[in-house]
């Protein structure tokens, strides 16, 4: 498969053991950062953690995401074993995908703290 720098190429999903954007080593952490750092990837995972959904429902929940980007993210996340789809067309996190939940929880807690601190700063400014 050609690289994304070739015209019209489709990027392959990052995987441990293969060079990824920003790292030629193929270390698992670098592959994970590349995969999860892709536009809308964490949002798709977050939404599926809340509840499995079909394509239209996922797109509705992630307002502003184009169909083509959602298609790409679902393809990549499926290719690497984080998402699966049933015969009914509903997307679910796999056991591996669901195992991301404890890793994302501290980020959610931090985001809530950040929001509260910014709200408090705005209150001090007024």
From TrEMBL:
Pfam families: HxlR. The keyword Nucleus does not apply. The keyword DNA-binding applies. One of its GO terms (molecular function) is DNA binding. Keywords: DNA-binding, Transcription, Transcription regulation. Residues 27-119 form the HTH hxlR-type domain. It comes from the Bacteria. InterPro entries: ArsR-like_HTH, HTH_HxlR, WH-like_DNA-bd_sf, WH_DNA-bd_sf. Residues 1-26 are annotated as: Disordered. This is Transcriptional regulator. It comes from Streptomyces gilvosporeus.
């Amino acid at each position: 498969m050609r690289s994304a720098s070739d015209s019209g190429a489709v990027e392959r999903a990052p995987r441990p053991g293969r060079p990824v954007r920003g790292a030629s080593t193929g270390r698992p952490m670098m592959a994970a950062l590349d995969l999860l750092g892709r536009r809308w990837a964490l949002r798709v995972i977050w939404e599926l953690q809340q509840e499995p959904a079909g394509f239209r429902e996922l797109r509705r929940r992630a307002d502003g995401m184009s169909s083509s980007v959602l298609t790409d993210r679902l393809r990549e996340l499926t290719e690497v074993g984080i998402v699966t789809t049933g015969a009914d067309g509903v997307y679910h996190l796999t056991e591996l995908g669901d195992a991301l939940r404890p890793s994302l929880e501290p980020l959610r807690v931090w985001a809530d703290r950040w929001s509260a601190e910014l709200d408090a700063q705005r209150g001090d400014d007024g």
